[in-house]
Structures are given as C-alpha cells and as structure tokens.
Amino acid sequence: MRARCWYCNVKCQKKHWKKHKKACKRRAAELRDEELFKDPPAKEECPICFLPMPERLLSCMTLPPATISSVPIDDFAEANEVLANQPMEQYYSCCGKYICGGCMHSFRMSGNEETCPFCKTDRIGKTNEERVEEIMRRVEVNDAGAIYVLGNHYYHGRLGLLQDRERAMELRKKAVALGSSQAHYQLGCTYDAGGDSKKSKFHYEAAAMAGNEDARNNLGTMEYLSGNMERAVKHWVIAASAGECNAMDNLLIAFNQGLTSRATIDSTLTAYNNSCAEMQSEARDAAIVFKQQQMGNI
After folding, report:
1. How many domains is the chain built from?
2. What spatial distance separates the first Cα and last Cα of the chain, rounded to whole Å?
3. How many whole angstroms separate alpha carbon 49 and alpha carbon 281?
C-alpha cells in the first residue's frame, strides 16, 4: 500500500514540497499513464447504418486482411495519397449530426441527397451565406461539432469566408473546451508543424484518450523519435487494434527491426483485422470507388 501524506493546511504542504515533490511528480506521471494507456472508448456509430465511424474514408475499405508482411490498406494509401486523407464522415449542420460516407453515397444513388435524412432540410440549393448562417445557429448553442467545422472553414477560407488562421485557432480551442477530440487532434497537428512539441503532445494525448487513432499513432511516432520504444509500441498497439493502418504498419516495421515481439504482432493483427471488418460495408466500398472515379484514379 502506498504511503500518503496528510497536511494540516496548504502552508504546511508547501513547506514540505521540497521533500515530497519527486514522489508526487512520479505518482502524477503514473496516474497520467494509467489514463493514457487504458482502452479508449468505442467508436461513435453512424446514426443511419449504425456501423463504427472511422476517422478516414480509406480505413473501412474492403481489402485482404493485414499479415505479418503487409498492411493492404496502408499499401493502397501510399498509391492514393489524396484519397487516403478524405474524411469518412460529413457534418450536417442543420441538425448537428455526423453521417458516414457510405450512407451519404446511398442517398446520392437513391436520389435523396438533396435533403437531410433527419430534418428534411434542403442540402443542395443553399448559398454559402445560408450555409454559414446554418452553422452559426449551431455555434450559438455551443455545438462542438459546428464550432470545429466553422474553424476548418476559416482555416481553409471556404464557404466565402476569408482565410483567417487566427480565428480558426480560437474556434478550435473553443471546440476543445466543449470536448471535441477532432479539434484536439487538429491543434496537435498545428503545434507539431510549428515545432511546439509540448503543446502538440498535450493535444494529441487528449485526442487519443477520447479515441482518436490518428493522434494515438502520432504519439507513438513522437515516442519512437525520442527513443522511448516501449511507449511507442503501446501507442501503436492501441491505435492499430482500433483499425489505424499507419499504426499497424509502424508496428510491423518495429517488429522487423527486432523492437517488438511476435506475440504482440499476432494479437494486434487479429484485433486490427477484426476492427477493419466491423467498419466495412458495400455502401462504404461504393463510396470509395465513387471518390476514386471523381479523382480520376481509375
């Protein structure tokens, strides 16, 4: 049992800080790691098909299972880099819901894409100004998804908005305060690109604990580059087990370098393939083919 320190008041605690700070910092780090490396929450489901919602369209593509020598989805992503970065989901600002790409494609094929499947709001015949107004109505009620989406529009200068990276950062921070793991991840990427590894790691960790596999994979890479191979493998195992192809590929590279065991690879491969299978559907495959056709890849 751990010894505990009890103090009569804050003044007494501060006076003793020099003697107990090492133990306290060590215990705080242990508690942080317990939270960081525990199983993440289950993926959110698409409200239409009820299948787990992956981070990217490519993550749910039906391809042969990953093996000790190949991760087919990752191999495909290298040859289709633009497609690999396409989002799997779309935010419907009229009612504040995310819908998967497979269901969106099904609506398109059935001729029903012009209206929202929930509130029947018109989705096609709107001006940019009307779309921004619709998003703003959700922003005003502190919808984290709408705030995050508006931040992205400012970041890229879309929907007729002037590009404003500073405003985008403000909105992403507000979305973070409301619990958006996507906003945490994007802030992590922004700080990472700017060379601020401390802030980047903080946001990646917050996103990872909320179930963002891309953030988890990036944490693994950060730990690997810092020489912390054990922590890197832990992150990659969690991300790969949730279907993150880059993490699975990183684990195979680590295995080939003798940095992790065959038992770890075998158990993670099983979890990875199972997770990918759970996210696959004919509709999602059709959506991916449609995207490829749009991009002229086939």
Report:
1. 1
2. 63
3. 9
